[in-house]
From TrEMBL:
Top class in the EC scheme: hydrolase
Gene3D superfamilies: Ureohydrolase domain (3.40.800.10)
Source species, domain of life: Bacteria
Keywords, ordered alphabetically: Hydrolase, Metal-binding
Organism, as annotated: Evansella alkalicola
PROSITE patterns (alphabetical): ARGINASE_1, ARGINASE_2
CDD domains: Agmatinase-like_2
Gene Ontology MF terms: agmatinase activity
Protein name: Agmatinase
């Protein structure tokens, strides 16, 4: 069982449509078992839902209303606390089901390791999959303190699975020297510090391809998003991230699924991080799931 049948928590605004009639399924992955600094992102998905009540249902960026999208919020997965290996297997199995049912998966983390099983699932369906990765951190380590299952490893795992030439990272401003060397030598694409401008240059190269997009909220400067486990100074503004989301929407790539991770409410008493994240989720819903 992936979810609690008695789940009665908050849903993302207007996300109470039925699973059967939905085109898009939002699901939370409340896992933060491998974080290397501050835990708390397990509480991110539900807080994003709770603050979404403050959103308008209409987006001036996309000129669309949430009533135009058939989506279902499944709630948070029931993941075995502390067991990262079993949790990522469960996430992969659930996304397999979503893809078999013809749904567009929109995941809420949780730490960034939760993206890894989703990518594995998508690669079984799309052998020409590309990844757009927006983040402060390279996430290209092979292991952290001897542990290969770490929030610092998912993009390296993705490179090894689908080929580094199919991975495009943006906003990167932190990592080991070896991670940047790997990026330079492997053939993957990495744009340091910036997101919107280099992304717009890359998007035409991905025309027509199936693309999975993963966004780590810590790509934002800590002034804009203090509620995350590993803050990194020198980040982008929420305006630039919205510009990037709109650019993806206006491009000719085929976004097949996405996630937003690493919102950690305990470090943001004002909820500005979760509020920003909820707006990004609205734009992802409206911009990337067009029929």
């Amino acid at each position: 069982m992936f979810f609690d049948d008695a789940y009665s928590g908050k849903v993302f605004i207007m996300g109470n449509g039925s699973y059967e009639k939905s085109d898009v399924v939002i699901f939370g992955m409340p896992m933060d078992y491998t974080v290397s600094f501050r835990p708390g992102s397990r509480f991110g998905p539900n807080r994003i839902r709770e603050v979404s009540i403050g959103l308008e249902e209409y987006s001036p960026y996309m000129d669309r209303h949430l009533e135009e999208v058939n989506f279902h919020d499944a709630g948070d997965m029931l993941l075995p606390f502390g067991n990262a290996a079993k949790s990522i297997d469960m996430i992969e199995q659930f996304v397999d089901k979503l893809l078999d049912d013809g749904k567009f998966p929109l995941g809420l983390g949780g730490e960034h390791l939760v993206s890894w099983p989703i990518i594995r699932s998508f690669f079984k369906k799309y052998d020409d999959l590309a990844i757009i990765h927006i983040d402060a951190h390279a996430d290209l380590r092979e292991q952290y303190e001897g542990e290969p299952l770490s929030h610092s490893t998912p993009i390296r795992k993705a490179c090894e699975l689908i080929g580094p030439e199919n991975v495009y990272s943006f906003g990167i401003r932190s990592g080991m020297r070896e991670e940047f060397q790997y990026a330079n030598e492997s053939g993957m694409y990495m744009a340091k510090y910036e997101v919107a401008a280099p992304l717009k240059e890359v998007l035409p190269k991905l025309k027509g391809r199936p693309v999975y997009v993963t966004i780590d909220i810590d790509v934002l400067d800590p002034a804009a998003a203090p509620g995350t486990g590993t803050q990194e100074a020198g980040g982008i503004t929420s305006k630039e991230l919205l510009e990037a989301i709109v650019a993806i929407s206006n491009s000719e790539i085929n976004v097949v699924g996405c996630d937003l991770v690493e919102v950690s409410p305990p470090y943001d008493a004002a909820d500005q991080t979760a509020i920003a994240a909820s707006k990004f989720v609205r734009e992802m819903l409206l911009g990337w799931t067009k029929k």
